[in-house]
Specification:
With about 290 residues, the protein is an all-alpha fold. The protein has helices spanning about 1-15, 25-50, 60-75, 90-105, 110-115, 120, 130-155, 160-190, 195-205, 220-225, 230-245, 250-270, 275-285. It is globular, with a radius of gyration of 20 Å.
């Protein structure tokens, strides 16, 4: 409700009534307006988030510590096998946990953005891209705090700065990868409740069978399962970079360019689906 009120106040305060955001002939102008509005939506959100909590950043770091300590304890108990990679076990698990948390938030970005402002976008003509970007900025802030924590812990374990920077860059790109997948998923998840529940279930239990806690062993069934997991293109290269193991640069470049290209297509697809989403909200009473 507070988020919706902030959007309404911002919309009324800006002299943009004559601008048709969804039908402007200039894509550059549309994107520029959307980014400007997104930033103005993001600022009060950020202030409100930390003003309502005494511990603030602690709640961003706490899940990382809990999951990493739990994984490390399971490893010490023999429940999880030792990774075949030259990394401290604590850092190995922490990279996977942070990559998963950032990816999971980004994957559901579109769905949560629309649901947080559904009463507003169903009544007022407002650029969908601005709402999504404002939530993306918030996710990036949380993600950067997590990545900074990984970097500091890695440096404390004696890992070189260049390796830390390379690994953290890959983890950050995982957020972009999650947003890309989420942009394609969001329209279907918003139109069909079952689709949303499937992905919520995946985010709840997909962590248990993923490269977050395991390093695939060659020639096993688990290796096939883990390599087809969506977090694999992020967690595995990030660990290799942190360990100083060579990464396939050409393949990584092709993957990055493909993700960026599909990100643009996905966001466009999501924005074009707005009329169907709004219609479903009005008819379904959502």
């Amino acid at each position: 409700m507070q988020f919706t009120t902030k959007i309404g106040c911002l919309f009324l305060s800006m002299q943009t009534k004559s601008v048709d955001f969804d039908g402007t002939p200039s894509p550059v102008k549309q994107v520029r307006h959307s980014i400007a509005l997104a930033y103005q939506l993001f600022r009060p959100q950020l202030k409100a988030k930390f003003s309502r909590s005494f511990l603030g950043y602690f709640w961003i770091i706490f899940p990382i510590v809990v999951l990493t300590v739990a994984a490390h304890g399971a490893h010490q108990s023999g429940i999880m096998f030792a990774p075949d990679i030259d990394l401290p076990f604590f850092i190995f698990y922490m990279i996977g946990v942070v990559a998963w948390l950032n990816f999971g938030e980004a994957l559901m970005l579109g769905v949560r953005s629309v649901e947080a402002s559904r009463s507003f976008i169903a009544r007022v003509r407002f650029p969908m891209l601005s709402i999504v970007l404002s939530q993306l900025f918030a996710i990036l802030v949380d993600g950067l705090i997590r990545i900074l924590f990984v970097a500091l812990m890695s440096l404390a374990f004696g890992i070189g700065p260049l390796r830390v920077m390379s690994s953290c860059g890959i983890i950050l790109f995982g957020t972009v990868f999650g947003v890309m997948l989420g942009a394609f998923i969001a329209p279907f998840a918003l139109l069909v409740e079952d689709v949303k529940r499937i992905f919520q279930l995946f985010l709840s239990f997909g962590l248990l069978v993923s490269p977050v806690f395991f390093q695939p062993r060659p020639g096993t069934t688990l290796e096939t399962v883990l390599y087809f997991h969506p977090i694999a293109p992020i967690a595995l290269p990030a660990r290799k970079a942190m360990a100083g193991t060579p990464i396939d640069i050409p393949l990584s470049a092709v993957f990055a360019l493909t993700v960026l290209g599909l990100l643009v297509v996905g966001l466009r697809f999501f924005i074009k689906a707005k009329p169907l989403i709004v219609e479903r909200m009005l008819l379904g009473g959502r």
